[in-house]
Amino acid sequence: MPELPEVETVRRGLAPVMEGARITQLELRRPDLRFPLPDDFAARVEGQRIAGLGRRAKYLLIDLDDGATILSHLGMSGSFRIEQAGQSDTPGQFHHERSKDGKHDHVVFHLQRPEGAVRILYNDPRRFGFMDLFERARMEEHPSFRGLGPEPVGNALDAAYLAARFKGKAQPLKSALLDQKMIAGLGNIYVCEALWRAGLSPERSAGTLVSEKGTAKKPLVLLVEAIRAVIAEAIEAGGSSLRDHIRTDGSLGYFQHSFAVYDQEGEACRKPGCEGHILRRVQAGRSSFYCSACQR
DNA sequence: CCTTGAACCTGGGCGC
DNA sequence: TGCGCCCAGGTTCAAG
């Protein structure tokens, strides 16, 4: 499910509720997510105050007062939702009884805020997501972050950086951009969209965008622009809601209405003046959507 | 080094 | 209504 814009949308949804709240209980209903949760997870978290919420690439980071951080990766189908204690019920009681919770609500954060109790439920049907706990000061040592590339929005990503990484590479652009060590946070949707915007075929080899001298050719400059723009626009739109991604309040993102190519097989290419149609081709086990007429 | 394919897991959609 | 197949936003690991 979630690429960087969806995770950022989740972070923004959770932050107003979680920041400053105290974790009164951590309910681990199903500790066998993609990786087992730490044995002492609940013990180390309960009683702590949440200092703030962050994000790195596709990882949500929940900073606790004692210097530890909870890491959460949503895999393909993970989502969080917020439940305030029901106003119409007895104060402090939740409108939804536990029996009405979904069978894929695997982890529940019970929070105490000045206004009352709140529950944050982590739902993940496929269980490709996972959580972990680490010392914030040693974040770079965590396996999830070691070797991770720069964020696509921000100053770290520019054409010179990608030129250095792409030089001499025969690897297709599609898989190069999906590589989290190259750029962190892109996934199948936004790679397809960025390549369409830049007019580049997903099958073109990355090295062809770099000159002999190792400088970025024009298409690479356009590609960097396209990546930054598509990610920024998607964040602005609250991410893309296809199957699973919902915002923390249950509402949908709407960037999927802006897809030019992703999941648009057979549609006419939306580039002005282009006569092509959108194709789907499996590349490295993933669907690439692109227009063979204007993406070269 | 490289690339591809399978694996992890559940559910939705479609054709029959 | 049901079955079987294909597909899915991610990541890792084995095999060629």
How would you explain this protein's 3D organization?
The chain is globular, with a radius of gyration of 21 Å. The strands form three sheets. It has a four-stranded antiparallel β-sheet. It has a four-stranded antiparallel β-sheet with strand order 2-3-4-8. It has a two-stranded antiparallel sheet with strand order 9-10. Residues 87-91 have low confidence and may be disordered. It has six helices and ten strands. The two termini are 28 Å apart. The chain is α+β, with helices and mostly antiparallel strands. It has helices at residues 4-18, 41-45, 159-166, 173-178, 188-198, 218-236, and strands spanning 22-28, 50-56, 59-64, 68-73, 79-84, 105-113, 116-123, 130-135, 278-283, 286-291. Helix 1 (4-18) packs parallel to helix 6 and helix 5 crosses helix 6. The structure holds a DNA duplex (16 and 16 nucleotides).
Descriptive key words:
296 residues, N-terminal domain of MutM-like DNA repair proteins, Helicase, Ruva Protein, domain 3, 2 domains, four-stranded antiparallel sheet, 6 helices, 10 strands, 23% strand, DNA-binding
List the helices and strands and how they pair.
Blueprint: H1 4-18, E1 22-28, H2 41-45, E2 50-56, E3 59-64, E4 68-73, E5 79-84, E6 105-113, E7 116-123, E8 130-135, H3 159-166, H4 173-178, H5 188-198, H6 218-236, E9 278-283, E10 286-291
Antiparallel strand pairs: 1-6, 2-3, 3-4, 4-8, 5-7, 6-7, 9-10
This protein binds a DNA duplex (16 and 16 nucleotides) through α5.
Strand residues, percent? 15-25%
Give the total of beta strands: 10
Shape: globular
Helix content: 10-25%
Q: Per CATH, which architecture of the largest domain?
A: Alpha-Beta Barrel
> Strand arrangement, largest sheet?
1-6-7-5
The chain-level structural class is: alpha+beta
What's the CATH topology label of the largest domain?
A: N-terminal domain of MutM-like DNA repair proteins
Overall radius of gyration: 21 Å
Order of helices and strands: HEHEEEEEEEHHHHEE
The CATH homologous superfamily of the largest domain corresponds to MutM-like, N-terminal
The CATH top-level class label of the largest domain: Alpha Beta
**Mean of the pLDDT scores?**
93
User: How many helical elements?
Assistant: 6
Main beta sheet strand tally, sense and closure: 4 strands, antiparallel
The overall number of domains is: 2
Distance from N terminus to C terminus (CA atoms, Å) equals: 28 Å
Low-confidence spans: pLDDT under 50, at least 5 residues? 87-91
